[in-house]
Specification:
Length: about 230
């Protein structure tokens, strides 16, 4: 039996996005009433929506070219699909507070507590419970994040990616920019705005899938990320 756990936010107009990024706009482009020739309908039933959104909207993955100008050309469509189809683990950092950093020794401790080992090619998900506590609230942008030392430590493990519930992998103004640069330098990536990570804690390894859209030259892409357990 297969269990699939959805790790992705809904995309909708008015949803929170990282500061300075495009807001989501969603309108009815074609309606069934229009297609059926109904004049001046009281309601419009969507047949086609028009979406306007940035590549880094909701649950998404960053391309290497997003990390810094040195990685120009390493766009999302050129990254190997194997980076987005991996084995995964989820580690518990739900004790971390707002804007607190996660350090390498804490990741090692979390692995020990869960009896898990980070392996080459893994996707490592960081559960902080920030989504359930603060989504779309006043502290949504103030979540915990990994330190620069932790980013380098993870990269040196040759992982494919790590994933966070927050809008940024590091803490803005403290480690976030540097974490992005380290990802580019060591050629791994990260997912942001993940949900339902609490459903993965204590369950061991799983199959992780977070396939991006094939956006030519893209700096990232929304994904429908899932964890799969085979029973």
């Amino acid at each position: 039996m297969t269990e699939i756990i959805d790790l992705s936010q809904e995309i909708y107009e008015g949803m929170p996005v990282y500061k300075g990024l495009p807001q989501v706009k969603m309108t009815v482009h074609n309606s069934h009433e229009e297609w059926n020739g109904i004049k001046n309908p009281k309601i419009k039933t969507p047949a086609v929506h028009k979406l306007e959104l940035g590549e880094h909207t909701g649950t998404h993955v960053d391309a290497i070219n997003h990390m810094s100008i040195e990685h120009k050309g390493k766009s999302i469509d050129k990254m190997p699909l194997s980076m987005f189809y991996t084995k995964g683990i989820c580690l518990d950092f739900s004790h971390k507070g707002l804007k607190e950093l996660i350090e390498p020794y804490e990741i090692e401790k979390a692995c020990e507590m869960a009896n898990l080992k980070i392996e080459k090619g893994d996707t490592v998900l960081i559960y902080t419970d920030h989504y359930r506590k603060n989504f779309n609230g006043k502290d949504w942008s103030n979540g915990p994040g990994i330190s620069t030392k932790a980013a380098r430590w993870l990269g040196e493990k040759k992982i494919s990616a790590f994933g966070v519930e927050t809008m940024s992998p590091g803490v803005p103004g403290i480690s976030n920019k540097e974490v992005h640069h380290i990802c580019g330098e060591l050629n791994f990536t990260h997912y942001e705005n993940m949900i339902n990570l609490h459903l993965l804690i204590g369950r061991g390894r799983f199959r992780f899938i977070g396939l991006p859209l094939k956006i030519k030259g893209g700096t990232g892409s929304p994904v429908r990320a899932v964890a799969i357990f085979e029973k």
